[in-house]
Amino acid sequence: MQVTNRPGEHITCLIIMIATIVWVQWTSFLLSVAWGIGLILLIYTLFKLRRVRKISILINDTAIVALIIVIGYMLYHSSGEIIKNGLAGHDAWAVILSRLSLILFVLPFALAAMLTKKKPLYLAIGTWRTTIYFPWIFKGPLKDPIWRFMLIFLVMVCAVFSFYIDWGQPELLALAGYALSFALINAVLEELLWRGYILSHFVSGFGELKGLVIAGVTFGLYHYHLGFSWPVCLLFSIFGIMMGGVAIRSKGLAPVMVMHFVMNVLFVLSGMIL
Questions:
Q1: Beta strands in 125-259 (DSSP E)
Q2: What value, to the nearest 5°, has the Cα angle with vertex 237 and ends 234 and 240?
Q3: How far apart are CA 245 and CA 259, in angstroms?
Q4: Is the pLDDT reported for residue 52 higher than 70?
Q5: Which of 4, 38, 188, 200 is most deeply buried (CB count within 10 A of its CB)?
Q6: What residues does 145 pair with on adjacent strands?
Q7: Which residues of 33-43 are buried (b: 16+ CB within 10 A; e: fewer)?
Q8: pLDDT reported for residue 54
Q9: Taking 60 as the threshold, does the pLDDT of residue 3 lie above it?
Q10: Any stretches that span the bilayer, and where are they (predicted)?
Q11: pLDDT for 142-198, tens place per residue?
């Protein structure tokens, strides 16, 4: 998908998204509300200026997406905290059910798509047969259908993580059940949010590569509130770009949901996520 943008639009929109996802995780509820009000004022100002001069529609649309993220994140985080406090002493159930709060993060994007009557590009099952290239997804000396790429990738990842899992721990079966439940909820809802809606929006506006960078970087930084450090979040941004590339090549979410699910299971079993 080839899209022509004005100079500086992509960087400006990337900055807006990074600033928003960092701000809502790093500050209080009231300061997040203040950021949302600031975005509303920015959207209103840009809308007014468009009448007298050529102001970027993409920047205005990005500010709207950022506002939806603020609303969705506050709903998701607040409900998650209520669930965790209500289930104090039942840590596993608290974490699993709090991940269901992601529905409230997805909901504002779903409503916005319904109101605008725009079908997100990647809100579909997708295909496993499309060619994917290694190492750069879109280009590279090696190419394979997505199903074979995924099989090789997951076998390699499982082999690496097997050295970090305590296979002799007494609660391994219980941990495996928790891992499967957590991974299923998290993979489905996060993929709907980040690849189904957010990636689709930015690819529509900026094309595949630039849209992929904005959505992938923001996805990685979003993990800060889950207890990961900023350097680890930057690593997750790389994974976010890779998973976004799989969604783009497959034209849907099924392959990347499987990838996300397996990765989350391994993260839990290895102790990275508790």
A1: 131-134, 142-145
A2: 160
A3: 12
A4: no
A5: 200
A6: 131
A7: eebbebbeebb
A8: 57
A9: no
A10: 14-43, 55-76, 96-115, 146-165, 171-189, 228-246, 253-273
A11: 899 999 999 999 999 999 999 999 999 888 998 999 999 999 999 999 999 999 999
Phi, psi of 246, deg, nearest 5: -65, -40
- Cα gap 251→239, rounded to integer Å: 18
Cα–Cα distance between 146 and 89 in angstroms, integer?
42
- C-beta of residue 260 within 8 angstroms of C-beta of residue 187: yes
Q: In Å, what is the CA distance from 196 to each residue of 103, 159, 180?
A: 13, 29, 22
End-to-end CA distance of the chain: 40
Peptide bond just before 7 cis, omega within 30 deg: no
Residue whose entry in the numeric block shows the structure tokens 């905290």: 81
Beta carbons of 212 and 3 less than 8 angstroms apart = no
Distance CA 271, CA 99 (A): 18
Question: What is the percent of the chain with per-residue pLDDT over 90, rounded to a whole number?
Answer: 76
Three-state DSSP class for residue 19 = helix
Whole-number Å distance between alpha carbons of 214 and 103: 22
Three-state DSSP at 134 gives strand
Residue 1 has a pLDDT of 54
pLDDT at residue 53, as a whole number: 57
**How do the domains of the chain map onto residue ranges?**
9-270
All residues at 6 or more sequence positions from 234 whose CB lies less than 8 Å from its CB, including other chains = 220, 221
Contact 249, 131 (CB under 8 A): yes
Q: Say if residues 88 and 219 touch (Cβ distance below 8 Å).
A: no
- Which pair of tokens denotes residue 32? 């997040």
- The backbone torsions φ and ψ at residue 142, rounded to the nearest 5 degrees and listed phi first, read -110, 145
